[in-house]
Amino acid sequence: MTDPVLETKGLTIRFGGHVAVDHVSCAFGAGELTAIVGPNGAGKTTYFNLISGQLPATEGQVLLEGRDVTRASASTRTHLGLGRAFQLTNLFPSLTVRENVRLVAQSKARKGFDMFSMASRHPELIEAADHALERVRLTRLADQTVSALSHGDQRKLEVALLIALQPRVYMFDEPTAGMSMDEAPVVLDLIAELKAEGGHAILLVEHKMDVIRTLADRIIVLHNGALAADGEPAEVMASAVVQEAYLGKEIADV
Amino acid sequence: MLTRILSGDMPRSRALSLVLLVIFLCLAFAPFLFPGTRSLETAARISVFIALAASYDLMLGYAGIVSFAHTMFFGMGAYGVALACENMERGFLPVVVGTLAGALLAAAVALVIGLFSLRVRAIFFAMITLAVASAVAVLVSQLSAITGGEDGLSFSIPRELTPAFRFAEGKLLGASLNGKLLNYYLVFGGSLVIFLGLLRVVNSPFGRVLQAIRENDFRAEAIGYRVVAFRTLATCLSAACAALAGSLFAIWLRYVGPGTAMGFEIMIDVLLMVVIGGMGTLYGAAIGATLLVLAQTYLQEVMAGAAETTAGLPLLPDLLNPDRWLLWLGLLFIASIYFFPSGVVGRLRQARRPAGRT
């Protein structure tokens, strides 16, 4: 395997006596889509927070393209190529849909500190925003304020923000949660497209097994914060650990 | 052209454009439209407070930062000019030196407060600013050898800006062509430049980031903006603009004192101006400042007139007695916040919004 895009080494966080993520070492390569599964409370989102910098690690390291970013702020990691979509929709509610994405394009172009030009005179940022909106089929809602959007459309916008960022690592945290049956494919197809493009690592926290089966190249299982399994989808799904983590030991034993 | 001057931030409502145009024209031609010392004082006061309220709105309305130290920054500009004029040879040099020193000091103090407290919770920052502002206000009134204490400082400004200097004989439309007129246009022009400068800043990429941070600071950081840096810079800029407004005010009054440049009442006034006019839009600050200064200056007179006309009726003359003006001012504020929760500007813009669009 070529050098991993993202790697965690012994990544750990403790909240008092509780170890939420327990020495997780894992490498993610370019062009690879890794599904992260585990029961509720297994530490999947916390693991994401440690990688993207929303929480400080108690122990261990996060390496982004070989570079240690364990102590870097979330914004620095974003500029280094880490893109994170959130599980609970986390947008700028009273701004328009286009402005939400434009802000990401502006961050990418590092124009945030420009205070002497008019924001409306940067057409390339608006174009980048419109392009990202087109990919998630939100163009017709571009001038709406986000708070007026349906839940499903907000989830799509969440993905559009990531597209505009063009990161090396895409991190999706249950991207289709709460979406209707006819909305989810837009997002899932897009993730498949990103995967086909290659060049970036994709991490996907997901509960729906059929989604994982169609998209994932690899599955890692977190259980009580620790890495419980890591391998090809078919192999991991058949393993006893997954059965136990998902169904409980008693049933698995039967 | 106009779009460029207003940085693309058009009033977006006919009523609002009209109100703003009236305010602008009245201030621009105040010496000729309303001859008389008192009305000119009011016009100058409105100009300065528009700049001050606008600079406060940059923090409160755009960046979502609550600060109680804004009058302190205003005072730094005012005292900067006063102290420079007091201690240096009379001329334009001390005015420039004092103005720059005040603005730099304000920005530096804002930087220190910001770096120490902007990374933590908003309420903590508000409390720190309150503490620092109170401490500085006490310091200013105690260090009477330097600041003149409670009495303040009267100082001399360049002769060209005083009534004693006449640059032309006679009068133009009832206004004497003297230094006072020049001084007014310095204040008006300076305030206008500050206002338009702030308008540019809030409509720049930087201003957009501030709004994003106000909306959701967590996500702003996640998409790559260093929230602390942006908040701190906004605070410094706002403080420097407040100081510039303070310098203009001191030049106009030729006096500074705790009551005119440091008092907590001014802080409350500025807060009210921004809230009444409408937070998050600089036009709101302009309208709020105009309304408040006008009310403070003329409400008593209006009431005296009203009391006189209702002299025969029971109770009313007592209620309308000019001594009760603060009561009525308070009621006006409560009413305006109740009926215009998004400020006057918010209300005016809402009125023309076509049905069906959110």
TrEMBL record, chain A:
InterPro entries according to UniProt: AAA+_ATPase (IPR003593), ABC_AA/LPS_Transport (IPR051120), ABC_transporter-like_ATP-bd (IPR003439), ABC_transporter-like_CS (IPR017871), P-loop_NTPase (IPR027417)
One of the record's GO molecular function terms: ATP binding
ABC transporter domain ranges (all copies): 6-249
SMART domains for this protein: AAA (SM00382)
CDD domains per the UniProt record, alphabetical: ABC_Mj1267_LivG_branched (cd03219)
Keywords recorded for this protein, A-Z: ATP-binding, Nucleotide-binding, Transport
Record carries keyword Oxidoreductase: no
PROSITE patterns documented for this protein: ABC_TRANSPORTER_1 (PS00211), ABC_TRANSPORTER_2 (PS50893)
Membrane-spanning segments: none
GO cellular component, one term: plasma membrane
Pfam families: ABC_tran
Protein's UniProt name: Amino acid/amide ABC transporter ATP-binding protein 1, HAAT family
Native source species: Albimonas pacifica
Automatic annotation (TrEMBL), chain B:
GO molecular function: branched-chain amino acid transmembrane transporter activity
Subcellular location: Cell membrane
Primary site of residence: membrane
GO annotations of cellular component type: plasma membrane
InterPro entries in the cross-refs: ABC_transp_permease (IPR001851), LivM-like (IPR043428)
Keyword Aminoacyl-tRNA synthetase: no
Keywords: Cell membrane, Membrane, Transmembrane, Transmembrane helix
Domain of life the protein comes from: Bacteria
Keyword Transferase belongs to the record: no
Membrane topology of this protein: Multi-pass membrane protein
Membrane-crossing residue ranges in chain numbering: 63-85, 92-116, 122-140, 181-203, 223-256, 268-295, 325-348
Official protein name in the record: Amino acid/amide ABC transporter membrane protein 2, HAAT family
Organism: Albimonas pacifica
